[in-house]
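FIELD: query
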Amino acid sequence: MALVLIGFMGAGKSTLARSLGGVDTDDLLAERVGESVEAHFDRVGEEAFRATEREVIAAALGSGAEVVALGGGAVESELDLTGHTVAWLEVQEDVAWERAAGQARPLARDRAAFADRFTRRAPRYEALADIHVLPGAVLGDERPGPGERLVLSPVHPVWVGRAPEPRPGDFLVSDEHVAPLHARGAYPLPAGEEHKTLATAERMWTEMARRGITRSGRVVAVGGGVVGDVAGFCAATYQRGIPVVHVPTTLVAQVDSAYGGKTGVDLPEAKNYVGAYHQPAAVHVLPGMLATLPAAERAAGYAEVLKTALIAGGALWERVRAGAVDDEATILACARTKLRIVAADERDAGLRQVLNLGHTVGHALETAAGYGVLRHGEAVGLGLLAALRLSGQETLREEVSALLTAQGLPVRVGGVEADAVAELTRRDKKRTGEATPFVLVQAPGRVTPGHAVQPGDLRAAVQELLA
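FIELD: result
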């Protein structure tokens, strides 16, 4: 069956299809009607154009062509793509406009209509796609099977619904709670943030050496954020670096921490102070694993879903504010949002810092309360409230507070002092000068890093969180 390329105008479908020896249905349509696609669209109108386009697509898919590129608007028709592998070539709206405007495209003449069409088509592309090809990624030979999806990014691939194939030389690691459920025979790390330490890492390095793990092997990490951070850090540093594969089993990890290559351990003085960037060879997301997650842990993961939705804005924000929590489409959308940001700024030099929304105060609360007292997601949820207060977004703060409450997450915390939390924010690892930069929110989808915050404002925002 064919590899079918879909995506908005300007995504590069035609170019890719031709490079792979495939066919472009726009070219086939032009041959059939004896005039350019643009001229035919203008002459007969969109309805008649789409009717002819459907016939051309059906013929192309039945021709035995291995690669078929569809026009950007073809997905607005009812298409039978059963049995074919559909790859969505994603493109940013402004990039698409830059490529398409002035190119005699009838649907790229009005900027506002162009943006509306881009937004309207995106859910259809998403629903049809078996492979999501993010900007800058390379489409290789691997294809997802039935019930699987593949996200290709410039930093690493993500498989949804496919477990990693075991290999000789793998070092399987999990934690003492997850291993009996999903990783029997794995080296068990002690569970909990309080064990995300250099001492735990040293024990794992020693075990890897004792078992004779070499640079031809891989670390396969099955678990949540703590397992991923420790295992990734050990992989990054063992014999100066071996591959790591993540199999995230918590909602926090499936929507956030498994992606992007940040690894590390905590010090008593601050969270994630010792670590390395080490991109995984792959991430394998099995949404069914969430069924074994305790309700409180599943709820805590929602804070990262909410954070990502605030950063993304648009369709993801509307989906989450309407009640989406941890369905596969939401998990996939969160993963794609993070990967697009990481691909643009892998080392946290600018844009990637928006992913720290809620984390500056959140990490300080975790440390002040004592590692293990607050779940990471619980602390991030509180940090989001502080960030929205500092952003002056009163109405949005109330909505986020209600969403957190609906999932059973705290909007107040006891046992910590405002001054202690404020002092810990000054030790945040993002600080490079005298002041710690904060991520603030203008609106969902408009989140920016690098803001200075007055000490009095910070203390007031933290004080509001204290029971």
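FIELD: remark
The radius of gyration is 24 Å.
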